[in-house]
Amino acid sequence: MTTAVHHDQDFYSWAMQTAQLVREGRLAEIDCEYVAEELEDMGAAKERELESRLGVLMAHLLKWIFQPERRGNSWIASIKEQRQKIVRLLRKNPGLKSCLDEAFVNGYSDARLIAVRETNLPERTFPENTPFVLGQVLDDAYWPE
C-alpha cells in the first residue's frame, strides 16, 4: 500500500493516486469534497476557454471593422481559427451552450480591451455594447464591413 499524497504537497501524484483509488473502488479513501471541487474547476476552465476564444474572435472582428486598411491573411486566419475552435469546443462540451450568452457578453468586454491594446486606438473607438449578435460571430460567412 502506498502512502497517501496530499493535493497541496504534490497535485500530480495526488491526482494519479486518486484516479487509481477510483478505479479500484476504494472510495472511502478519497477526499470526495476536494475531488468535487476539482471537477467543478475543470468545468469552469472550459467555460473560461469559451469566453476567452469569443473575446479573441470579437477583438479581431472589431479590428476588422475599425482598421480596414490593415486587413490581411493573418486576421482572416485568426478569425477562422477561433470560430473553428469554438464550434469544436461546443460540440465536445454541449453543456457549455447554457453558458453561451453570458460568455458572449463577457467575451465582448474582453474584446474591447484586446482591440485597444492591439490597435492603440482609444477605448471609446469601440462600442460599449457589442455590435454583433452571437450568430454572426460564429458564422463563417459573416465578415463585417
Protein topology:
Layout: H1 11-23, H2 32-66, H3 73-92, H4 100-119, H5 134-138
Helix pairs in contact: 2-3, 2-4
Q: How many domains make up the coordinates?
A: 2
Number of strands: 0
Instruction: State the shape.
Output: elongated
Query: How far is the N terminus from the C terminus?
Result: 66 Å
For the residues shown, what is the average pLDDT? Answer: 94
Low-confidence runs of at least 5 consecutive residues = none
Number of helices, counting only DSSP H or I runs of 4 residues or more: 5
How much of the sequence lies in strands comes to under 5%
Largest sheet: none
Structural class: mainly alpha
Order of helices and strands: HHHHH
What gyration radius follows from the Cα positions, in whole Å? 21 Å
* Overall helicity: 55-70%
How would you characterize the overall build of this protein?
This is DUF29 domain-containing protein. Pfam families: DUF29. InterPro entries: DUF29. The chain is mainly alpha-helical and 145 residues long. The protein folds into two domains: 1-30; 43-138, no CATH class. It contains five helices and no strands. The protein has helices spanning 11-23, 32-66, 73-92, 100-119, 134-138. The chain is elongated, with a radius of gyration of 21 Å. The chain starts with 10 loop residues before the first helix and ends in a 7-residue tail after the last helix.
